[in-house]
Description:
It contains 8 helices and 6 strands; from the N terminus they run H-H-H-E-E-E-E-H-H-E-H-E-H-H. The chain has 280 residues and is an alpha+beta fold. It folds into 2 domains: 2-139, Nuclear Transport Factor 2, Chain: A; 172-265, Penicillin-binding protein 2a (Domain 2).
Amino acid sequence: MSNVRGWVALAVAGTLLVACTGGEDTDTDADDFDDAATERAEAAVAALAAAWSSLDVAAFGDRTDAPAAAGRTVQAMIDELAVEAATVEPRGEVDCAADPCVQSLRVWLELAGIGAWEYDSEAMVAATGDPVVAWEPALLHPELTAGTAFERTRRVPRRASILDRDGELLTSLQPAFRVGVEPGKARPETYSRLAALLDIDGLALRERARAAEPEWFVDVITLRLDDWRAVRPQVLSVPGVVIDSSKLPLTPTSTWGRAVLGSVSPATAESLDNASDLAL
């Protein structure tokens, strides 16, 4: 009887030993799998970061699982934001606690006329399969989606008044009226009538209108309130005329202090060519 019990105990012990040994092998295999997944993710993200940093659109696309869509979107980003240079660096360690693995990115973009723009993003790599980054618009920026796009906007602050040495106003915000022409609605007589009413070069205006798109606003002249009131009915009767009213910092009269203060007008191609690199 005792011998039977001894064999049973020995058999149970042997079973436990085999079970424990099998568990240790499973843990080792899991660790090896995690290490391999981490290395694959690190390599995939590093390759994508290098392509993005060099603004290589084709290489960037190839480092994702959707080359065409990724390349098209990053090209749009470069074009719309006027990206001149980029630096993209992986930050911290790859997190492969779940599938897919996640790697944080720090992005620096140099935008023409604006300067540096910095933000954080994330790249995801599947634990198995091809070692490429999963494509989604949020890879380029956390707030980018399939239904949104990059766009540059420019907000110009209100021009401050000019003061004399005693702090008195030399200029103040006053009503101003920009007279323009919409080429698609203008008639042959539009330019000669405006020339007679506003003392402008009608032939030059007609040439500028012909070179513009039909719906564009072709600037003619900016008038102060009193000057506008004097010609308003006649100007509004001219075909194709468009009026843009606003307020501008103006001197008491159109000729007051002009030799010293100069004048302000909308930017032209020539003035932008002679401006600094910050002009857009």
